[in-house]
C-alpha cells in the first residue's frame, strides 16, 4: 500500500453536516466512528489508503498546516484566526453557517468612545484586528467556551463569539453590537501535499464538484 492519507475532522457540531458531504466525495469512515462510546481518535475509512482523525476544531487547522494531516474540514473562523501560510482552503462546503460577532450586556453601550477595551474571546487575533480597524485597542482574555458569562462576572465588558440562532446571547442577557465575519466550513489542504500527491488534488476536485452540483440544484 502507498503511504496513507490522513483526513482531519472536528469532533463537534460541524460533524453531522460534514459526513454526508464527505460521503459524496467517497470519504466514508468505518462503523466504529459512529459509536459514541468509542474513544479512539483514528479511524479507518472505506479507502484502504486513507484514515480519519477526529480532533478539536482549532487542532484540525494545526494538523493540516503542519502536514501531519493532508486535508480536513474546518470552519472559516478557525482558518482566519490562525492565518497559516501552509494552509489552503479551496472549497466552501456551504455547511456550518454562523457568524462572528461582538456582544455586550443589554443596555451597556460599552464600546461608545472607548480607545481601549477588554474582550473575552476564543478568537484574539480576529478580535484585535476587528477593533484595530475602529482605532480601538482590544485587550483579549482568552477563553475556550462559555464566553457569554464573562461580562456578568466582570471578566470583560464584552465578548467576541460565534452566533447562529442568537439564543445563547439572548439567554445570557447579551445583545449583538457588531457583525464581524460570516462563517462557513471549508475543505482545507496542506499546500505541499496538494502539489506532491495527486490523490489530494483528486479529492479537492471531488469536493468541489459536489459543492458546485449542490449550488446548481
Ligand atoms: N452556533 C454555531 N452554529 C453553526 N456553526 C457553529 C456554531 N458554533 C460553532 N460553529 C462552527 O463549528 C466549529 C466548532 O466545531 P466543533 O463544535 O466541532 O468544535 P470543537 O472541536 O468541539 O470545539 P472545542 O474546541 O470548543 O471543543 C466552529 O469553528 C464553527 O465553524
Ligand atoms: O447563536 P446560538 O445558536 O445560540 O449558537 C452560539 C453558541 O454556539 C457556540 O457554542 P457551542 O454550542 O459550539 O459550545 P462551546 O461553548 O463549547 O463552543 C458558540 O460559542 C455560542 O456559544
Features:
217 residues; alpha/beta; D-Maltodextrin-Binding Protein, domain 2; 2 domains; five-stranded mixed β-sheet; 30% helix; 31% strand; elongated; binds adenosine-5'-triphosphate; binds 1-O-pyrophosphono-5-O-phosphono-alpha-D-ribofuranose; ATP_PRibTrfase_cat; glycosyltransferase; EC 2.4.2.17; ATP phosphoribosyltransferase; amino-acid biosynthesis
- CATH superfamily descriptor of the largest domain: Periplasmic binding protein-like II
- Proper CATH architecture of the largest domain: 3-Layer(aba) Sandwich
Main sheet makeup: 6 strands, mixed
Quaternary status:
single chain
Helix content: 25-40%
Summarize the structure.
The chain has helices at residues 15-24, 57-65, 76-82, 124-133, 167-171, 191-196, 198-216; strands at 5-10, 42-44, 50-55, 71-75, 87-92, 98-105, 116-121, 137-142, 158-163, 174-183, 185-190. With 217 residues, it is of the alpha/beta class.
Amino acid at each position: 500500500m502507498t503511504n496513507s492519507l490522513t483526513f482531519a475532522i472536528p469532533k463537534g457540531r460541524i460533524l453531522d453536516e460534514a459526513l454526508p458531504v464527505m460521503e459524496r466525495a467517497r470519504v466514508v469512515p468505518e462503523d466504529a466512528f459512529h459509536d459514541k462510546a468509542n474513544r479512539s481518535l483514528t479511524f479507518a475509512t472505506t479507502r484502504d489508503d486513507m484514515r480519519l482523525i477526529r480532533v478539536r476544531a482549532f487542532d484540525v487547522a494545526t494538523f493540516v498546516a503542519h502536514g501531519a494531516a493532508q486535508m480536513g474540514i474546518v470552519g472559516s473562523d478557525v482558518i482566519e484566526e490562525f492565518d497559516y501560510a501552509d494552509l489552503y482552503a479551496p472549497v466552501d462546503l456551504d455547511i456550518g453557517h454562523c457568524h462572528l460577532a461582538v456582544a455586550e450586556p443589554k443596555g451597556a453601550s460599552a464600546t461608545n468612545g472607548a480607545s481601549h477595551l477588554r474582550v473575552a474571546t476564543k478568537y484574539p487575533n480576529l478580535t484585535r484586528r476587528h477593533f484595530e480597524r475602529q482605532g480601538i485597542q482590544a485587550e483579549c482574555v482568552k477563553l475556550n467556551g462559555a464566553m457569554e458569562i464573562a461580562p456578568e462576572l466582570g471578566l470583560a465588558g464584552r465578548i467576541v463569539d460565534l452566533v447562529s440562532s442568537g439564543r445563547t446571547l439572548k439567554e445570557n442577557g447579551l445583545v449583538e453590537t457588531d457583525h464581524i465575519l460570516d462563517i462557513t466550513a471549508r475543505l482545507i489542504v496542506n499546500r505541499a501535499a496538494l502539489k506532491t500527491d495527486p490523490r489530494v488534488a483528486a479529492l479537492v476536485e471531488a469536493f468541489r464538484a459536489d459543492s458546485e452540483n449542490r449550488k446548481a440544484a
